[in-house]
């Protein structure tokens, strides 16, 4: 199940990278215009060119889709990936040369773009990149912990109440249902809430026991780095 999720995630990334749902299907090297208008909140620069493989995907996607109209996006990407793997170095060469030429142009335009930035814009761009990298790292970390089987965190009393009554809650959208359920939760007296408080406490114990077993297993397989507090402790130890 985990591998299928990763394949689906990869297919979505490839689709976004090459614009598979656009009408363009011809691979060619195009120039990237330098942004003339700058702001500290939205700074756009030259876009890094596609890799040789992504160029191949963009070229082949319309053909594979036309020949296999019933295939899902994940299956189309998998089929194209298989085609790429069996290509000879000579067959891959045009895509690699197009990427190298685009990289030369990209570096020239990037240098020109960066020279036009003010110090404030450069700082804003650096901070934006830092935030993007941190977000990507957090997503990768969460995905890895899921694949490693980390137990689900215990639920709060309100979360348990919400899951039990969500389907019957008034509202056509999730935010509206949430507002309704929050109001209903506030109306409960303490004795009514105690049922959910106890369920939450039971779930907390379940989480604590499962986490203990999971962390012991992580130590056994040499993945102490994913254990709570272990990474911070290791850093402190290394600093002395």
UniProtKB/TrEMBL annotation:
Keywords, ordered alphabetically: DNA-binding, Nucleus
GO CC list: nucleus
InterPro entries: HMG_box_dom, HMG_box_dom_sf, HMGB
DNA-binding region: 46-114, 151-215
Keyword Amino-acid biosynthesis part of the UniProt annotation: no
Domain HMG box: 46-114, 151-215
GO biological process, one term: regulation of transcription by RNA polymerase II
GO MF annotation, one: DNA binding
Protein name: HMG box domain-containing protein
Species lineage: Eukaryota, Metazoa, Chordata, Craniata, Vertebrata
